[in-house]
Design brief:
Elements: H1 21-32, E1 38-40, H2 42-49, E2 57-60, H3 64-70, E3 75-80, E4 85-90, E5 93-99, E6 101-103, E7 115-117, H4 121-125, E8 136-138, E9 142-144, H5 149-155, E10 157-158, H6 164-170, H7 173-185, E11 188-189, H8 191-200, H9 209-220, H10 233-239, H11 242-249, H12 263-271, H13 276-285, H14 290-310, H15 314-318, H16 331-337, H17 347-356, H18 361-372, H19 381-397, H20 410-416, H21 422-436, H22 444-455
Parallel strand pairs: 2-5, 10-11
Antiparallel strand pairs: 1-2, 1-8, 3-4, 4-5, 6-7, 8-9
Helix pairs in contact: 6-8, 7-8, 7-9, 9-12, 12-14, 14-16, 16-21, 18-19
């Protein structure tokens, strides 16, 4: 973690020791060319907070053409000329440089119809989303703060620059970004800004699903998700049916602190109470990756089974997810979920697909591309050829294609000590999977030995 750029938010112009050499070099060269430029945005905010920095953005009065001349001995890429942005490469490291600008009208709630370049840092600051993100820094001048961002940083507030309704109407993504910064930094959203969030939450309909999902993922991976759960209710009310949100409102989510930073697991918490129809609708709405969507459905199904086996339901059942990351996770959850490793189209999935279509293996191999090339499966032709090769090997080695073909039965597992019901089916599925993968021989002794290991 970096030390704070300005101790206790003083306006000292002392050169920070932990700015990268490349940043100091860029700012110095601009200065020598009479184009005072600034580090701006999230990097300044995070330096003040002592957080690690991943990206440094520089804003300048120089036009893109002037930037190219000033750095003519380097590669400068045209990465966003329509917005006054170029990317400077120094030792193959990219540094985004954007000319001061003002934004024109927004007609799509996403991007300005046009931008105008300016030489005024103040005018540039007025277009930015939140006061804590408009802070600018230059080694000679020190910190520049036109909108009291330092005060909001100290008060731990996310406040829109100017009128929050205008800011959110310009770019609806800012609505969820306000909530995301609150969860990531453990800040409160300022009263007027939060009122605009609540009033305009449905404008998230204008946001592309991919952008919405990206922000949602950041929220679910944030360090202060449980602390900000109630503030996020406005978002849950937008995303989920009313009946689920009433449960979320009274949910004790302290156990979230003990979970791995995995947005799929946290999405499972949010979707646990949904009906299958509502779950499918939600996952389609946010256009989750096919693999992630399959994982979440698997997680939810597994949790329902765990809840049933423990004789709990409703809010009590969701507490079982707290065991996901630890040693106490029971077999049903472990075998169903395989937290980081489960492949959405594992050999076992394909065996189930074959059995669903009631085809013998040679016929299934022939028509496989007709089945899984459907868009809903998201399988590439290259992957299909690999799958066909795997199934040809299964055919050649005469491996089992269903649990009925295993050398042991559910009765054998019950005799070992497994309880009757879904647990037995889960074990048989795992044994079948391992046999198909070549990890086990389809022999009674080998299968029983593996089952005993699971039981312990």
């Amino acid at each position: 973690m970096s030390k704070p750029l300005l101790t206790e938010f003083n306006s000292s112009s002392e050169l920070p020791e932990d700015l990268p050499e490349e940043i100091l070099f860029i700012l110095d060269r601009f200065e020598k060319n009479h184009k005072r430029s600034y580090l701006v945005g999230g990097s300044v905010r995070d330096l003040l907070l002592g957080k690690a920095i991943s990206d440094y953005d520089i804003t300048t009065p120089a036009t893109p053409e002037e930037v190219k001349k000033i750095f003519s001995d380097f590669i400068v890429l045209d990465t966003g000329l329509q917005h006054g942005t170029v990317t400077l490469l120094i030792d193959n490291k990219p540094f985004e440089i954007t000319t001061f600008r003002t934004d024109g009208k927004y007609s799509d709630h996403r991007r300005p119809n046009n931008v105008e370049l300016t030489t005024s840092l103040y005018e540039d600051s007025q277009r930015r989303d939140f006061t804590i993100n408009q802070l600018a820094y230059n080694p000679t001048e020190g910190l520049v703060d036109y909108h009291n961002g330092l005060a909001d940083l100290k008060a731990k507030l996310v406040r829109a620059v100017g009128d929050p309704y205008k800011r959110f109407n310009e770019d609806a993504l800012r609505i969820i970004r306000a909530l995301r910064f609150g969860a990531q930094l453990n800040f409160n959203v300022e009263e007027n800004t939060f009122a605009a969030v609540k009033d305009m939450i449905n404008d998230l309909d204008f946001v592309a699903a991919e952008r919405l999902t990206h922000e949602l993922s950041k929220i679910l991976n944030s360090d202060f998700l449980s602390d900000n759960w109630q503030n996020l209710m406005v978002l849950w009310n937008y995303l989920f049916p009313h009946y689920a949100c009433e449960i979320y409102r009274s949910l004790n989510v302290d156990f979230l602190e003990n979970l791995p930073k995995n947005h799929n697991i946290n999405l499972t918490i949010l979707t646990y109470f949904l009906t299958n129809e509502d779950l499918s609708h939600f996952l389609d709405k946010i256009k989750l990756k096919r693999l992630d969507s399959g994982l979440i459905k698997s997680y939810v199904s597994a949790l329902h089974e765990v809840a049933e086996s423990h004789g709990v339901e409703g809010i009590e059942a969701i507490g079982e997810i707290g065991k996901i990351g630890g040693q106490e996770m029971d077999f049903e959850t472990k075998s169903k979920m395989n937290i980081e490793e489960r492949n959405f189209f594992s050999p076992l999935d394909l065996v189930h697909l074959k059995n669903k279509y009631k085809l013998d293996l040679p016929t299934f191999i022939e028509v496989l591309d007709l089945i899984v090339l459907e868009p809903k499966y998201g399988i590439s032709p290259h992957t299909i050829e690999e799958i066909k090769a795997s199934f040809s090997e299964i055919l050649e080695k005469q491996l089992p294609l269903s649990t009925l073909e295993l050398a042991i039965t559910g009765k054998d597992l019950i005799n070992l000590g497994f309880s009757q019901g879904k647990a037995v089916g889960n074990v048989l599925d795992v044994l079948l999977h391992k046999t198909i993968q070549g990890e086990l021989e389809n022999k009674e002794e080998s299968l029983l030995s593996a089952a005993k290991a699971m039981l312990s």
